[in-house]
Design goal:
Elements (H helix, E strand, L loop, with lengths): L1 H28 L1 E6 L8 E3 L2 E3 L1 H13 L2 E6 L5 H6 L5 E2 L13 E3 L4 E3 L1 E6 L14 E5 L3 H11 L1 E2 L6 E2 L9 E5 L2 H9 L5 E5 H9 L4 E5 L10 E3 L2 E3 L3 H16 L2 H14 L2
Parallel strand pairs: 1-4, 1-5, 9-12, 9-13
Antiparallel strand pairs: 2-3, 5-16, 6-16, 7-15, 8-13, 8-14, 10-11
Helix pairs in contact: 2-7
The structure holds glutamine (GLN).
Length: about 270
């Protein structure tokens, strides 16, 4: 009898311990970690020190679909993709433009928004095209498509097949590029005259221009009329098809329901205040 009792007590203890181990494992699995850079309104910005915005609502919808708790990591924009490709984070959602180079290190979801580059300038500036930036000091956000476009136009590029130098439209004009950690930072430096213009994505450009009385923003076009069409997508670790499928399913549903358009309007209004 006694041994029986001991055995059943031991069994109960063992059961309790395995339950504990199970719940702690589950805890790990129950989290969806999203990397962003909350300096890109209306897609992500801080409200009461918490990242909010269109992308954060998309993140929440994906977490809900997966039945997981959403954890947001607010980091520098140019570190997001390596955190996803290394598996440190599950998803990168940060108004990330799909480019062929980036698609080599991560998989991208379906597109959920489009954008073009914009030029933020003082109201009295008479700039119409990218060619008009000749000789100017240009501020950008480090590691963004605006940075790549301006840097390439200043230094020129190489033809991938022939290796031949392709002259940039700003090459040899004396134009310079300064990389800042955020558009807001670049705007402060434009206000103080350290840079003449800032080149960033459309909606953040319009929002930041609206925050200064003497700023305006225009679309970046080339003299030949061409533009810089971009699409935003969610970054997933390469080969994680299951997660990518869920992300695509949620994004397609949100687009269909008109939620993304609605959130863009709401968060543009909210992030423009103050
Ligand atoms: N869309 C731009 C890019 O992907 C900028 C994104 C951002 O600053 N968050 O480079």
């Amino acid at each position: 009898m006694k041994t029986r009792k001991i055995i059943s007590v031991l069994l109960v203890v063992a059961l309790m311990m395995s339950a504990l181990v199970l719940t702690s494992c589950e805890k790990e699995e129950d989290v969806l970690t999203v990397y962003t850079n909350a300096e890109f309104p209306p897609f992500e910005y801080l409200a009461d020190n918490k990242p909010v915005g269109v992308d954060m609502q998309i993140a929440q919808a994906i977490a809900d679909e997966l039945g997981k708790k959403l954890v947001i990591k607010n980091v520098k924009f140019d570190t997001i993709l390596s955190s996803i490709s290394s598996g440190k984070g599950d998803l990168g959602i940060a108004g990330i433009t799909v480019t062929p180079e980036r698609a080599e290190s991560v998989d991208f979801s379906v597109n959920y928004a489009t954008s073009t580059q914009y030029i933020v300038m003082k109201k009295d500036a008479e700039i119409k095209t990218i060619e008009d930036l000749a000789g100017l000091k240009i501020g950008v956000q480090l590691g963004t498509t605006g940075d790549f476009i301006i840097s390439d136009e200043i230094s020129g590029t190489e033809d991938e097949e022939t290796g031949e130098h392709i002259k940039g439209v700003l090459e040899g004009t004396g134009a310079t590029v300064t990389q800042y950690n955020s558009a807001a930072d670049a705007a402060v430096n434009m206000d103080s005259g350290k840079v003449d213009v800032v080149v960033i994505d459309m909606l953040p450009a319009e929002i930041v221009a609206g925050q200064y009385d003497n700023f305006k923003a225009i679309e970046l076009v080339y003299a030949d009329g061409s533009k810089t069409d971009e699409s935003y997508a969610v970054a997933v670790k390469k080969g994680n098809k299951e997660l990518l499928d869920t992300v695509n399913k949620v994004i397609n549903r949100l687009i269909e329901e008109g939620k993304i358009d609605k959130w863009v309007v709401e968060h543009t209004t909210q992030s423009s205040k103050g």
